[in-house]
């Protein structure tokens, strides 16, 4: 097996293929820009359950089962599940994984969890596993009351805030050379903190991290934005995307004409989400629906997906800490 490395933080992947993806999206996401691309959309975000937490867990179960079924596999064919969510102890993903009876690695990197899962899953494929499910998601109502305020309180939203996406996306990575696309490289993020204190303004907190990882990838690989059909970020939102453009411009990099932020584009302006969507579901939903469909059609040949995460908790916020952030990136080719 080749042991070639890029410089610093970027690793090449060999024979890591994306077999398929599956998405479960909430009712507000169904009415958004990618609504027609999702596999399953809900009419009620309780998903027939008594609590929102149980609904989120059920969404994870459906996404995992759905991607296994789309790949024409059985649960016994899956070597491992890697993924996570935004709740304490990543209970939604972990409780869903218990029904599959296979190896499980629970991950948490906030809204960068999906890209982290692709990196970990890709490494597992590279070391001999055949089929690995990578999954991540979030739910507006569960995240809102864990990280912000009780839903019943009716707190006014800040103009810089984002709307946590309700959805789960699952990807089946395989060593079989028959996938929709393949993961060819990954850049692991490092924790970056520019001292942002406003928990409503996560885009501003995450943009420096996104800039750091994107620049590291281009430097390590010797590539440039012109080499890619698109650069997707997770959930910087509209304001965070503008900050990213400014930071990259200071490094002599222009991505404006090919950048798509999954969160900023998930909803229409008329849905009044201010800066767009946030949450671990953003990159998972868009990658496993819109992105993979464009690989199938031949529109995309080579893209970057950079998952962005704000690593704060209610406790750190209450204690006056700033918001550190991280961004993980994968290169995907046809």
UniProtKB/TrEMBL annotation:
GO MF entry, a single one: acyltransferase activity
Signal peptide: none
One protein family per Pfam: SpoVAD
SUPFAM superfamilies, sorted: Thiolase-like
NCBIfam families: PRK08304.1
Protein known as: Stage V sporulation protein AD
Organism of provenance: Candidatus Fimimonas merdipullorum
Phylogenetic classification of the source organism: Bacteria, Pseudomonadati, Myxococcota, Myxococcia, Myxococcales
């Amino acid at each position: 097996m080749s042991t070639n490395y890029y410089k610093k933080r970027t690793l090449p992947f060999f024979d890591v293929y994306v077999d398929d993806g599956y998405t479960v999206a909430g009712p507000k996401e169904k009415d958004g820009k990618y609504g027609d691309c999702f596999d399953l959309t809900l009419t009620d975000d309780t998903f027939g359950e008594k609590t929102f937490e149980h609904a989120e867990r059920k969404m994870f179960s459906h996404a995992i089962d759905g991607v296994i079924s789309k790949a024409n596999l059985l649960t016994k064919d899956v070597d491992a599940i890697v993924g996570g969510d935004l709740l304490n102890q990543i209970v939604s993903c972990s409780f869903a994984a218990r029904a599959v009876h296979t190896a499980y690695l629970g991950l948490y990197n906030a809204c960068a969890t999906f890209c982290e899962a692709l990196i970990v899953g890709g490494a597992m494929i590279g070391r001999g596993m055949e089929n690995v499910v990578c999954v991540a998601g979030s739910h507006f109502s569960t995240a809102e009351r864990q990280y912000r305020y009780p839903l019943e309180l009716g707190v006014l939203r800040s103009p810089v805030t984002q709307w946590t996406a309700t959805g789960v996306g699952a990807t089946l990575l395989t060593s079989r050379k028959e996938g929709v696309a393949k993961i060819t490289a990954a850049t692991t993020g490092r924790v970056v903190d520019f001292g942002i204190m406003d928990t409503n303004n996560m885009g501003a907190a995450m943009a420096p991290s996104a800039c750091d990882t994107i620049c590291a990838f281009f430097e390590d690989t010797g590539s440039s934005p012109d080499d890619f059909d698109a650069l997707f970020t997770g959930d910087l939102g509209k304001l965070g995307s503008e900050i990213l453009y400014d930071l990259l411009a200071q490094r002599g990099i222009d991505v404006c004409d090919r950048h798509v932020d999954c969160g900023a584009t998930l909803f229409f302006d008329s849905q009044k989400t201010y800066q767009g969507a946030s949450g671990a579901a953003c990159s998972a939903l868009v990658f496993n629906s819109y992105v993979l469909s464009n690989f199938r059609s031949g529109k995309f040949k080579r893209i970057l997906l950079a998952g962005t995460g704000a690593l704060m908790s209610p406790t750190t916020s209450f204690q006056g800490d700033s918001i550190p952030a991280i961004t993980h990136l994968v290169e995907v080719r046809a």
